[in-house]
Amino acid sequence: MASAINWFEIPATNFDRAVDFYGKVLGTDLQKMGGPFDMAFFPCSDGGTGGCVTHGNGNKPSAEGAFVYLNGGDDLAVPLARVEPAGGSVVMPKTAIGENGFMAVFMDTEGNRVAFHSMA
Questions:
Q1: What pLDDT, on the 0 to 100 scale, is given for residue 3?
Q2: In angstroms, what CA-CA distances link 67 with 5, 35, 63?
Q3: Residue from 20, 53, 23, 54 nearest 36 by CA
Q4: Residue 25 and residue 87: Cα distance in Å, rounded?
């Protein structure tokens, strides 16, 4: 098994607000797709783990439950600095986790608890 995770979805009550938030925080455009429910895909390449912001499929935002760590790039301080201006809040600042690098936790505009990870 190459990876235990192959897909994740971050639920939104206000789809456009959530897509705007993650686009600003990550400094990229999410690819929107309609269908039976709304989805906006995070960038994914080289066989990495894919995921999306989703609305209308019965999932509800939550500060509890599964905990998604997004790639913080070379230094998670960069996207973390965009969280509050984009409408979210920082719950735990950049914190060293030994040989595993750094993590930080934030709340998005929808009430989801999400984290960043980076090695620097």
A1: 75
A2: 12, 26, 9
A3: 54
A4: 10
Report d(CA 3, CA 100) in Å as an integer: 17
Please state, in angstroms and rounded to a whole number, the distance separating the CA atoms of residues 27 and 40. 15
Please state, in angstroms and as integers, the Cα–Cα distance from residue 26 to each residue in 14, 30, 43, following that order: 18, 9, 10
Closest C-alpha among 114, 66, 58 to residue 86: 114
Q: Would you state the pLDDT for residue 15?
A: 97
**Greatest CA separation for the chain:** 43
Amino acid at 83: V
Q: What is the pLDDT of residue 1?
A: 55
Angle, CA of 94, 43 and 21, to the nearest 5°: 55
Q: In which residue are the tokens 């790039």 written?
A: 73
The pLDDT of residue 110: 98
> Domains in the chain and their CATH numbers?
7-118 (3.10.180.10)
Sites in the chain below the pLDDT cut of 50 = none
Q: Distance between CA atoms of 36 and 34, rounded to whole angstroms?
A: 7
